[in-house]
Write a structure and sequence with these properties.
two-stranded antiparallel sheet, 3 helices, mainly alpha
Length: 132
Amino acid sequence: MAKFDANSTLKRLRNRYRLVVMNEDTYEEVVKFKLNRLSVYIALSTLFVLLTGLTVALIVFTPLKYYLPGVGYGNSKQVKEYRILKMRTDSIEKALQNKQQYFNDLQKVLQGNVPKLDTNKLNLPKLENSEE
């Protein structure tokens, strides 16, 4: 198994690299950067921390937090109101379905598409009582 050498890892992080952006038509250097792996790592880490901090600050310090259901900033009045509205919506939806079914059935009757029901009297055999 290979040994882990902290000194060689640190040297690799500090090796210098040059990033050059060139104009493709004239091969003129537009911008050049002298970088090493450590500086790139630090820059990306800083960018990540800043973006995370800005996102958290946006949620915590603005009214945006009230629109995120999983965050838990809603008060009990809003939760109760939400439940009442949900029950009303469900009852309105059920009433609408019932009315739609009624109108569909009424339309079938008016068009004469009613299935014919068997109205004949059934002749069932009489059960014999053992008491007689």
